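Journal club prep, notes for RB
We'll compare a predicted complex against what the paper describes. Inputs for the adenosine-5'-diphosphate case:
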Amino acid sequence: MLKYIDQYPNEIRNKRVVLRVDYNVPLDNGKVKDNTRIIESKQTLDYLLNLNCDVVLLTHLGRPKTEEDKQKYTTRHVLNYLNESGILGRKVEFLDNFDIQYEGGKIYLFENVRFFEGETKNSLELAKKFASLGDVFVNDAFGSLHRVHSSVAGISNFLPTFFGFLVKKEVENLSKFLNPTSLFIVILGGAKISDKLGLIKNIKADKIIIGGAMALTIYKGMGKNVGKSLVEDIDVSYFINNPKIILPKSFVVVDENYQNERVVDIDNIGDSIAVDALVDDETVQLIKNSNMVFWNGPMGIFEKGFRKGSELILKGLEECKGFRAIGGGDTVRFINSVENNKKYIDFISTGGGATLEFLEKGTLDAIDYILSTVKN
Ligand code: ADP
Ligand code: MG
């Protein structure tokens, strides 16, 4: 059983808490472009501050590889945002070493955990150093729980470990899809099918609607001409004659300059690029009539304005009375660009890879790791 912070206030009150969050926010020239993940961390943070805790925030930011990346991905960018916006309600101090001098009631933000040797290899030496920053570890980084890293998992060897409210909300909502009530529809789009094969094969869905470039990969594997569309070279035998899989029959296509937009059926792509997948009316009806829907991956290249396919999905979702959830960075960006979006969706998952892995396996590697450590 996962231990959540609200069940153990007496073990947390007045303590120094190391809080792993997911502040891997999009940056533009060092400026925070989207604060969703910061807002999502506030419930846990406020709870800890109300229990009179000092808090050291740990997060990764980007994928730093070179020395130059240290300028680009320092969490000082996040620090500046936190202090300029006042979003956490208190001043935040920066920490880039393990010699912490506590002064009561403070929030500290640690330097990017991936700047430290061993983080992504779950170095226990590093985990012990992170643990030295506090008396208790709280993990609320749902989007990172598919990674067994020092600041996510290894640290639980050295401190009593609890999960925060974001992890609780994600686990509770996504768990509904593990023992689904029929009719359960999964809608998948996006660019790459290879990322999603595990989910497709394991999720207990009645039907899986596939759009995006994924659909073109499958059609190509079936021997269809898909012109200059984006495809992957993979074995698609699972999808052939599989009654569970629903593929769109028509596509929006364009020429090489993304001009001359036309709608054609799958047998008439010619040498065009298919940029949007259009499900038929029957499929929209199916979405309307379902009891549960999970959607990941836009139906088309919505960033370039090819949104019709994704809007057809919204049409189905709008009238669906069941439980409707979405997940994935680009899918969330799409839904955030839609007006009045609350009428289409009941739950927005903040995870990308973590969300898909949770639905595939019913758990995540860092959760399993933490539950197996002696202290927890
Ligand atoms: P998410 O981030 O929600 O998990 P993905 O990253 O899997 O979603 O997929 C999103 C990307 O897929 C978008 O950038 C979109 O432009 C792209 N995409 C969708 N349809 C096509 C297509 N037909 N051709 C090329 N790219 C596509
Ligand atoms: Mg994406």
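Talking point for the session: The two ends are 10 Å apart (CA to CA).
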